[in-house]
Amino acid sequence: MLRFCAAFGTRTWRHAASGKTPATGAAALLRRRCRDKACLLCGDNHVHQNPAIANAGFNTFQDLAGSEYGLYDKVNWFRGLLDTFGVVYPQLWDVDFRKQATRLEVPVYFLIGRHDVNAQPKMTEEYFNILTAPHKELIWFERSGHGPWVNKSAKFVDVMVNKVLAKTTAKNVEGKVQE
Question: Can you tell me the distance from the alpha carbon of 38 to that of 167, in angstroms, rounded to the nearest whole number?
């Protein structure tokens, strides 16, 4: 059975019994059979089947079929996916922000879906409680999974404009307008 480990919104995975990282590379990941709804390759199925998640019907592949994406965009989306699995994730397996980034000198906002299977809410809360920052805020999207900007887009835009941007634009820590 696979489980997710989150470090500041980054997802990595390890075998639950041994704690060892499974075979690397996109091909190995694609061959791996899904044994749990929270597995990396089946996360979207969990989202689509969870009645607690609002507007869960988005479909990345259907969206990529849209006329606004050309062939070059579609090819690069798949190249990015392969690079993420084969290059990026292996570099993040040993990253643990709970130990490596306990203090940040910038405001921090966590916008997290309550039903996220990729960036687990429990681990986000744990990191939030450890983190020291000039301002930190944990903003819950109760009816969202990993995509609150899709599931609750109006609330997401409101938070970004009226909370995050309003408190972080054109002012430094002392409240002076930046030149």
Answer: 35
Q: Is residue 53 a contact partner of residue 151, using CB atoms and an 8 Å limit? A: yes
Query: Each residue of 119-151: pLDDT tens digit?
Result: 889 999 999 999 999 999 999 999 898 889 888
Q: How confident is the model at residue 57 (pLDDT cuts 50, 70, 90)?
A: low
Alpha-carbon span 87 to 22, nearest angstrom: 14
State how beta strands 108-113 and 136-141 pair.
parallel
For 147, residues 6+ apart whose C-beta sits below 8 A from its C-beta are 47, 58, 113
| Residue pair 109/124 in contact by the 8 Å Cβ criterion | no
Predicted local confidence at residue 10, as pLDDT:
37
Which tokens belong to 99?
Answer: 């130990």
For the record, the structure tokens of 59 come out as 């479909």
Q: Which residue has the tokens 């983190």?
A: 131
Q: What span, in angstroms and rounded, lies between the C-alpha atoms of 46 and 42?
A: 7
Q: Please give the structure tokens belonging to residue 47.
A: 């989202």
| For residue 169, pLDDT beyond 70 | yes
What does the DSSP assignment read for 55-116? T----HHHHHTSTTS-HHHHHHHHHHHHHIIIIIHHHHTT--HHHH-SB-SS-EEEEEETT-
Give the pLDDT of residue 111. Answer: 94
